[in-house]
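Async update (no meeting this week)

Hi team, since we skipped the sync, here's where things stand on the single-chain job. The sequence we agreed to prioritize is pasted below, unchanged from the tracker. I ran it this morning and attached the output directly underneath so nobody has to dig for it. Comments welcome in thread, and please keep replies under the output.
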Amino acid sequence: MGCCRSSSEISASRSHQTNSAGAFSSLTQAEMLQLETLLSGIPNHGREAIINLPVHQLLNLYQYHTMALYHAAQREWQHAISYEHRAIKGLQVLLPTEKDHYIFFNCYKILSASFLALGELQVAIEGIHIALAILLKHTPMDYKTLSIHYYNLANVYKALKNLKSTAQYLTKAIETAQLSHDLDEKYILMLETELQTTK
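Output:
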């Protein structure tokens, strides 16, 4: 994904826009750090769309995601879901033509994990599928993360006792993990063992 742009790079890319030249100069140091942290988690090709958004509105909306992370860590799943829904809805308003922008990946990841923790498996599956579609669009070579998400899907289908889909996603997890330059033999062996017990 690459390193985040420096404050001066962010400011320079924004200064050419009318009505927003002062947007970055009005940021506090904490807000600038928050923006840089947000951007560092987004692949380079997706950063421009984020930089072009109204920065204060973006940071305010992203606070909902931060709160969702906090509540998920506390196992307060309903609160995590509520905050993540707010983040997603607000970001969709800011990015009406890019509802599959990479910024949504972590939102759907936390949302689906929260639904999974509550036992709402079908809704969790929907969230994992959305997160996977975003990964496949923006980071198709991130085999490790893709494999983990295929494995997560397999586990949800296993909980639903859908052995066909469990085997399908375990196979995809294995095949994807094997493409990684950072081959994790123990992880692949674990996936293969689970696949054998599924059949």
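Quick observations from my side:
Residues 1-122 form one domain.
The CA atoms of residues 177 and 190 lie 12 Å apart.
Reply here if anything looks off.
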